[in-house]
Amino acid sequence: MNKQNFFERISDKITYWTGSAWAFTMALGVIIIWGISGPIFNYSDTWQLVINTGTTIITFLMVFLIQKTQNKDSKAIQLKLNELLAASRHASNRMVDIEDLSEAELDVLHKFYQKLSDAAEKDENIYVSHSIDSAEKLSSEKSSGKKRMNRDKSD
After folding, report:
1. Rounded to an integer, what distance in angstroms lies between the CA atom of residue 119 and that of residue 132?
2. Taking a C-beta distance cutoff of 8 angstroms, is the pair 92, 85 a contact?
3. Where are the alpha helices (H) located in the chain, listed in sequence order?
4. Rounded Cα distance, 18 and 24, in Å
5. pLDDT tens profile 96-125
6. Dihedral over Cα of 77, 82, 87, 92: its sign
7. Is 129 helix (H, G, I), strand (E, B) or coil?
8. With the CA atoms of 93, 94, 97 and 102 taken in that order, what torsion angle do they form, in degrees rounded to the nearest 10?
9. What is the Cα–Cα distance from 154 to 143, expressed in whole angstroms?
């Protein structure tokens, strides 16, 4: 068993466990015990340092475990969405793997889809499909029509 698989298995188990009711109950119990013990230790700097150090260490480690789990989940969701796009006859395959685009490129796509959304709102029929491919086809048809009209006017 390699280190990567070991880390993945351990991080999955720890992340699952820390999201459980038992883990929350234990953490709450530690805080309650710490709070009750305040008067015993005269609310000293050491008493405060114990909880601060403990929570800081746990938080620091959990950031990496949670990020590992989120990366795995995000990759799985992206693959599922890619499969849906690839399987759908009406979806644009250009949308597969768009998570690799830059932020600026994603902003351009967002603006385009905002325009498609605005066009869909204007349609009386809610079942009319709007996609990149259909928009390009429509744009091409409009351009061809304008060229023909301009040619007819000049003749």
Report:
1. 13
2. yes
3. 3-18, 21-36, 45-87, 103-122, 132-154
4. 7
5. 878 888 999 889 888 888 887 777 777 766
6. positive
7. coil
8. -170
9. 17
- C-alpha to C-alpha distances, 155 to 25, 31, 109, 143, 147, nearest whole angstrom: 84, 87, 40, 18, 12
Residue 16, φ and ψ in degrees, nearest 5: -65, -45
What's the CA gap between 116 and 140, in Å, rounded?
Answer: 16
pTM of the predicted protein model: 0.59
- Structural contact between residues 46 and 34, judged by C-beta atoms closer than 8 angstroms: no
Give the whole-angstrom CA distance, residue 96 versus residue 116: 19
Q: If you ran DSSP here, which 8-state letter would residue 1 be given?
A: -
pLDDT in tens, 3-34: 778 888 888 899 889 999 999 999 999 999 99
Residue whose entry in the numeric block shows the structure tokens 């990366």: 71
DSSP state of 124: S
Q: Which amino acid is at 2?
A: N
CA distances to 12, 15, 30, 52 from 5, rounded to whole Å, are: 10, 15, 32, 32
Amino acid identity of residue 31, one-letter, is I
Helices (H), ranges, 37-101: 45-87
